[in-house]
């Protein structure tokens, strides 16, 4: 497929330039041009958002536990680790669970909250001990903005409107008074609000035209108050469902603030996704090939949105993304618990660079999911916790949060496997508020390094510091037995001479550079 992309691929801030055959050998450097004085778009920190669903051990065991005390409490170890990656927002309570969730089950004294069965995920008992107050407390402790997804599939307009009033109304009203009776005087000021989740599937199996009408109705009753206006997020397309975007933007675009695209990376099929850790190069390549499809989805959905919203007022939110593997052997298939290797880190770095480069339209994203579910930042076992390679990528990319995106032109080279090939090197660049330039690069090729020569235009540089995340094997990962096998280390393969940088990107590596 990528053989056909021999033409220039122009994104909003990056030009991927194919290398000639001669340039594909590591001996021939790939050219990177960074236009340090041409930035005009801010990379929203909300691109680095997380997702925490009532799914498996994402909430219970992940952030909320009875371990040690016998009483429900937050996991401080997990919260402290999440603070380090400066989580900007957390999407909750789902996912599919959102359209099953009735928020009033999760307020008031815990011993009086009803118990339900989570028929969406694993058929386990949900005691509702983690509800609205607990979620908003968690977000506050992490320093993240809450992103609540309301129930459209099995809920009512009144139920959603009352939830909005409960968390946001400052004065005297039935819901604000109920909030006070439950111990919270001040409203929380929750602005990010999803109107359903995957309404084309688990959220109600709706057609786009039907959903557009339902959306218009539900959002009408999310009334802005003095201190908080809703940022209304509509269910967006599933991968390449362009009809969904077309219809929803045409019929309801005027009432939407964010359109929520979902796309997962798989190495196999939905019925045989493949192991998270036991894989070879065929599965590595398939995963990369599948991941880079995200670019065409973003560009094509954005092009449709441009027709209805040329000012780009409506954000494209990639509300669910990440790798989806078979669950770890012996775990509940409904819990979606998977390990996380260097392969996942490379996928994360590719996607985050891509989102940065489309920051003019993508102003939010949520990796699925934060703890113990799918491509998690953190895995827990009893009182133990490990940081995954994906966590480290999120940490390495923190300097891009709210920085100014810098346009780059990057000769990408190719990574060939079998009869196919894909671009090997991807990157993005930004300038932070102190003037430092940050460049993040990823080499998708697990076999060969790539030399890169960078021309930094429009500024002068004197120092460069780099960090790298890589390992000797594709499936390297952290485990409870060896929790710190993978972490970023100093990158010594970069030199600065005048305005030029020269570097050697090792195979399967993620590199973050800071230039001053
Ligand atoms: O993240 C797991 C599930 O994937 C979510 O609940 C759903 O929205 C998506 O299909």
What structural category arises from helix and sheet content?
A: alpha/beta
Determine the fraction of residues in helical runs and give it as a percent range.
10-25%
Number of strands: 30
If strands are numbered along the chain, what order do they take across the biggest sheet? Answer: 5-8-11-12-13-14-15-16
Tally the helices: what do you get?
10
Assembly classification: single chain
Strand content: 25-35%
When the domains are counted, the total is 2
In angstroms, what is the radius of gyration?
23 Å
- Poorly predicted regions are 1-12, 20-26
Could you give me the name of the CATH homologous superfamily of the largest domain? Glycosidases
Q: End-to-end distance, in Å? A: 39 Å
Bound molecules: alpha-L-arabinofuranose
Tell me the CATH topology of the largest domain. TIM Barrel
Shape: globular
Mean pLDDT: 94
Would you identify the CATH architecture of the largest domain? Alpha-Beta Barrel
Largest sheet, described in full? 8 strands, parallel, barrel
Q: CATH first level of the largest domain: which class?
A: Alpha Beta
Question: Can you give a write-up of this model?
Answer:
The protein has 516 residues and is an alpha/beta fold. It folds into two domains: 6-42 and 405-515, Immunoglobulin-like, CATH 2.60.40.1180; 45-393, TIM Barrel (Alpha-Beta Barrel). It is 22% helix and 28% strand. It is built from ten helices and 30 strands. The longest helix has 16 residues, at 293-308. The radius of gyration is 23 Å and the shape is globular. The chain binds alpha-L-arabinofuranose (AHR). Alpha-L-arabinofuranose (AHR) binds next to loops. Residues 53, 94-96, 197-198, 320, 368-369, 374 line the site of alpha-L-arabinofuranose (AHR).
């Amino acid at each position: 497929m990528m053989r056909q992309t021999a033409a220039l691929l122009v994104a909003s801030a990056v030009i991927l330039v194919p290398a000639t055959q001669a340039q594909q050998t590591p001996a021939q450097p790939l050219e990177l041009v960074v236009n340090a004085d041409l930035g005009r778009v801010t990379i929203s920190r909300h691109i680095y958002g997380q997702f925490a669903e009532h799914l498996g051990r994402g909430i219970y065991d992940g952030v909320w536990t009875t371990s040690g005390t016998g009483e429900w409490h937050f996991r401080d170890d997990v919260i402290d680790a999440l603070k380090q990656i400066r989580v900007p927002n957390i999407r909750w309570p789902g996912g599919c669970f959102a359209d099953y969730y009735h928020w009033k089950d999760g307020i008031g004294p815990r011993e009086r909250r009803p118990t339900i069965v989570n028929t969406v995920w694993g058929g386990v008992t949900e005691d509702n001990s983690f509800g609205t107050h607990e979620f908003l407390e968690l977000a506050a402790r992490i320093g993240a903005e809450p992103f609540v997804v309301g129930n459209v599939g099995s809920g009512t307009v009144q139920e959603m409107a009352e939830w909005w009033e409960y968390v946001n109304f400052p004065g005297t009203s039935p819901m604000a008074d109920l909030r006070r009776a439950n111990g919270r005087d001040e409203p929380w000021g929750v602005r990010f609000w999803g109107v359903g989740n995957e309404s084309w599937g688990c959220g109600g199996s709706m057609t786009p035209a039907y959903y557009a009408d339902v959306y218009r109705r539900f959002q009408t009753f999310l009334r802005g108050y003095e201190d908080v206006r809703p940022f209304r997020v509509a269910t967006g397309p599933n991968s390449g469902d362009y009809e969904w975007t077309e219809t929803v933007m045409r019929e309801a675009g005027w009432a939407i603030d964010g359109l929520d695209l979902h796309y997962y990376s798989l190495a196999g099929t939905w019925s045989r996704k493949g192991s998270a850790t036991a894989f070879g190069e065929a599965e590595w390549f398939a995963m990369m090939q599948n991941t880079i499809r995200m670019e065409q989805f973003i560009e094509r959905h954005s092009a449709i949105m441009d027709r209805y919203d040329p000012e780009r007022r409506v954000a494209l939110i990639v509300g669910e993304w990440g790798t989806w593997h078979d669950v770890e052997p012996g775990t509940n298939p409904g819990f979606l618990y998977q390990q996380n290797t260097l392969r996942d880190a490379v996928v994360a770095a590719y996607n985050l660079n891509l989102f940065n480069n489309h920051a003019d339209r993508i102003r939010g994203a949520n990796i699925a999911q934060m703890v113990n579910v799918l491509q998690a930042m953190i895995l827990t076992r009893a009182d133990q916790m490990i940081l995954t390679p994906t966590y480290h990528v999120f940490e390495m990319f923190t300097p891009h949060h709210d920085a100014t995106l810098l346009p780059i032109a990057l000769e990408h080279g190719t990574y060939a496997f079998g009869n196919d090939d894909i671009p090997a090197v991807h990157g993005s660049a930004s300038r932070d508020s102190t003037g430092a330039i940050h460049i993040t690069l990823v080499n998708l090729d697990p076999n060969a390094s790539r030399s890169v020569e960078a021309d930094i235009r429009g500024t002068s540089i004197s120092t460069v510091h780099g960090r790298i995340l890589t390992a000797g094997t594709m499936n390297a990962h952290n485990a409870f037995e060896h929790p710190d096998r993978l972490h970023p280390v100093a990158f010594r393969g970069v030199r600065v001479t005048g305005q030029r940088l020269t570097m050697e990107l090792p195979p399967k590596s993620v590199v973050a550079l800071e230039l001053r």
